[in-house]
Amino acid sequence: MAQTILGRIGQLIQANVNAILDQAEDPERMLDQLVRDYDKNIGEAEEAVAQTVGDLRLAEDDQKEAASAAREWGDKAAAASRKADELRKGGTTADADKFDELAKVALRRQLGYEQQTKTLDAQIARQRELTEKLKDGLNKLRAKRAELDQKRDELVSRAKMARAQTRVQAAAKATSIMDPSGELKRFEERIRRQEAVTRGREEVAASSLEEQFEALGEDENKAEVEARLAELKRR
Prior knowledge:
Number of strands: 0
Order of helices and strands: HHHHH
Mean pLDDT: 77
């Protein structure tokens, strides 16, 4: 179980939260789901770490008991051996042999507990290494959880600003559609055309009046010519 949780922690740590959120259609909803997933995995990781630490403490207790038992059986073997030596010096060989056998039994027990101690030492070393890895992974996961909280607050703020900008743009677009300036411009163009036509008519009228004055001037000149001719003839 511990290895499985550790692998899951590694996958979560390697996950790029920013990339996941950038691809999400609803970042806030995705963030809430990520928070729930992280909380679930943190809880499982904490339980795995607690179990691993508990197993380590049990192994350490067993190792201490085995080492203590090995020392105790060593002391018993030494005591039995001394007793055998004393009896043998006193000439009680049969009883001395019995205590030597007891010393051998105690030594075999001592060897058994010493082997158990060595086995537990190796197990404890592996258990400690695993525990440290799990604690490290758990701490990293907690750090990612804090980062996720910060990212969530940031994206919620950005999402609100984006929605506000969208509303402003929609309102501006609606205002542009209802803007009367285009209609005013067309009306102004019509007035300009009417003014131009009026100026054209004035120019046409002025041109006709000039021609009439020119014709009147020609008649006056013709009369003057006739009068001068008549004067010449009288002379």
